[in-house]
Amino acid sequence: MSSFPELYFNVDNGYLEGLVRGFKAGVLRQGDYVNLVQCESLEDLKLHLQSTDYGNFLANEASPLTVSVIDDKLKEKMVVEFRHMRNHAYEPLASFLDFITCASLHLKCGSKIAFVLSLYSYKL
Question: What does the UniProt keyword field contain (predicted)?
Fold first, then answer.
């Protein structure tokens, strides 16, 4: 059984592979960016994003929409999707996702020395 690990890849990783392929398919294309640049207001931007895989992530936001609200909601969506992937990951991918989460927190907090030390202490 262990001599052909590729035969059992989908048992542990098939769902995540499909999930990542779905996320990749939802990434904005060149045409989407062209349309976003042509938007005259943030409300127009919101309407265009609703026609993509971003859907209704701004649906509950009040009308004077600001850039910071859009930024916060986009980050929140990314974090939710990342956590969903992490929660369904098996080892060693789960440890790697934990590691990059901790690494980004270290860099965000300005603790670059701790990040470098964690690189040396991390074992796959």
Answer: Ion transport, Transport
Which helix (H) or strand (E) segment is 79 a member of?
helix 67-87
Question: What would the two tokens of residue 3 be?
Answer: 């001599």
The residue that leads in pLDDT, 104 or 45, is 45
Reduced to 3 states (helix: H, G, I; strand: E, B; else coil), residue 59 is: coil
Residue with the two structure tokens 């859907």: 55
Supply φ then ψ for residue 106, to 5 degrees.
-60, -45
Query: pTM of this prediction?
Result: 0.69
Task: For residues 92 and 75, give the distance between their C-alpha atoms in angstroms, rounded to a whole number.
Answer: 25
Q: In the numeric block, which tokens belong to residue 104?
A: 């980004």
Judged against a pLDDT cut of 80, whether residue 33 lies above it is answered with: yes
